[in-house]
Every structure is written in structure tokens, then in C-alpha cells.
Amino acid sequence: MNTLLFITLQAQPAAQGGAASGASMWIMLLLIFVVMWLFMIRPQRKQQKELEKFRQGLRKGDKVITAGGIYGTVDEISDKTVLIKVDGDVKLRVDKGSLVKDNSDLQQAQQK
To answer: Residues 73-78: contacts with CB within 8 Å, 24+ apart?
Structure first.
């Protein structure tokens, strides 16, 4: 069904305007892809790299925020998990993937 629709759509520009219409369609599709890459894919990849760099650079004593919104201080780091001290003697073991940002960035923004 999809192949038939594609063939039909390809045949219509050739019958109406020749090769110029088909070429302009491909140019528009290419431009749409380039715009999507510039505004969506590239910034997302950059953000992923920064987040991975943050998670790999964690040290004991760093202030962090989990994806669930829990603020804490790193107490112990293993390969896939982090033990964070939340309040007093309360400690939570969380996956490294759930740490989303450093609390110091938030504190610096509040001081300005």
C-alpha cells in the first residue's frame, strides 16, 4: 500500500512539471532534515555528552539533584550507583543515571 502511494506521488510531478518538481521536492525534504538536525538532534547530543561528563566526574562531597527532585551530597560512588546523604544520617543509594545536575550551579544562580 505504501509503495503504491509512493509510486503514485512520484509519477504526478513528472506528469505535471517534469524533473524540476521532483528535484524541488527532494531539496525541500533535505532542508527539513537539516533544520531538524540543527535544532533538535545536535543540541540533544550535546546535552547528553555534558550529562555523561557530569556523571563520570562525580566526587565525594559533590552536591547533586536526582531526577525525582531529591537534593543530596555524594557520600560513596560505585560503578553504577551512588550513595547520597540526604539529611542527617539518612542515606539513599541511587542509580547514576538518575542524577541530573549539580546543586552548585543552582546555588550560583541564586547568589547572582
So the answer is: none
Q: How far apart are CA 75 and CA 92, in angstroms?
A: 10
Q: What angle do CA 100, 56, 71 make, to 5 degrees?
A: 35
Find the length of the chain: 112
Which residue type occupies 70?
I
* CATH number assigned to the domain covering 59-111: 2.30.30
d(CA 76, CA 94): 11
CA distance 53 to 86: 23
Q: How far apart are CA 81 and CA 112, in angstroms?
A: 33
Whole-angstrom Cα distance, residue 71 to residue 103? 8
What are the pLDDT digits (tens) for 32-51?
Answer: 998 988 888 889 999 999 98
